[in-house]
Write a structure and sequence with these properties.
ER, single chain, Quinone Oxidoreductase, Chain A, domain 1, 6-stranded parallel beta sheet, alpha/beta, globular, 2 domains, Rossmann fold
Length: about 300
């Protein structure tokens, strides 16, 4: 099968097209003919070698952790899905990712693709949707009436987090460049701070929860907008434990855990129109297509998700 691989860490030139054997599903797995995948910052961070200690994979590595396609083979112990089912998934984190024509995934991680989504839209959801879900609800305990602040609202996680928080009944503030202010209001954000003109730390106070997707100085200043007893979840770096303790904040680093049950809940919200996918950019499934997609993701200025159309 065709796949885009890396054989060593480095820049975008390490992305190479290769012909590799199609994976074989185990008894609890399915084989998916992959119709679309998407790009996430973890892809190029791993490609550059930033995560080699955390994820010590053997080469060659197929990157990618979103898949949407059709089941072509089921293992002997699979009971909830069958050949021909349209599914989307954030598979287990291995060196055999989703920049490939075929992907295997555990049955427990699968979800049916909502009838109103195409494969590209479905592929935009799993990693960012689950990340937003686990930050908001598992770590942040966000509930109706909470004041929620989401950094980088126009990014993949931000787009999902705004919609999920609003659906839960929270008041949502977020940050954006001037070109994305109207877009984020259209997602339901109550307050959109143009970071080119204003500092969030001068405006916000007494918030219940912050989702930090930027780290560094931004994370440091985020503590100041939280009330005592508030919560902070970061997806980029572990928060300062001493500062959190000093301010009475529950602060956590969230590393996504694939979860089929949560993905199925997301699927129902998508089918009901309560949450919508936002594919901002799409590229073809080729060596150059993946290089261009990585280059865009590295700018941190992609709007919504970057999708790769395989079929």
């Amino acid at each position: 099968m065709k796949a885009i691989i890396i054989e060593k860490y480095g820049g975008i030139d390490q992305l190479k097209q290769a012909d590799v054997p199609a994976p074989t599903p185990k008894s609890n797995q399915v084989l998916i003919e992959n119709h679309a995948t998407s790009i996430n910052p973890i892809d190029w961070k791993l490609r550059e070698g930033y995560l080699k200690d955390m994820l010590p994979f053997e080469f060659p590595i197929i990157l990618g952790w979103d898949a949407a396609g059709i089941i072509t083979e089921v293992g002997d112990d699979v009971s909830q899905f069958k050949k021909g089912d349209r599914v989307f998934v954030r598979p287990a984190t291995t060196n055999q990712g989703t920049y490939a024509e075929y992907v295997v995934a555990d049955e427990s991680l699968l979800a049916p693709i909502p009838a109103n989504l195409d494969f590209a839209e479905a592929a935009s959801i799993p990693l960012t949707g689950l990340t937003a879900w686990q930050c908001l609800f598992d770590s942040g305990k966000v509930k109706e009436g909470d004041k929620v602040f989401i950094h980088a609202g126009a990014g993949g996680v931000g787009v999902m987090a705004i919609q999920l928080a609003k659906n839960a009944g929270a008041y949502v503030a977020t940050t954006a460049s001037s070109k994305n202010v109207d877009f984020l209001h259209s997602l339901g954000a109550d307050k959109v701070i143009n970071y080119e003109e204003q500092k969030f730390s001068d405006i916000l106070e007494n918030y219940d929860f912050v989702l930090d997707s930027l780290g560094g100085d931004i994370q440091e200043k985020s503590f100041d907008v939280l009330k005592k007893g508030g919560r902070l979840a970061s997806i980029v770096q572990p928060p300062d434990e001493d500062k959190a303790r000093e301010k009475g904040i529950d602060a956590n680093f969230v590393w996504l855990e694939p979860n089929g049950e949560q993905l199925q809940k997301l699927g129902r919200l998508l089918e009901e129109g309560k949450v919508k996918p936002h594919v901002g950019h799409s590229f073809d499934f080729s060596e150059q297509g993946l290089k261009d997609a990585h280059k865009l993701s590295e700018t941190h200025h992609a709007k919504g998700k970057i999708v790769i159309k395989i079929k």
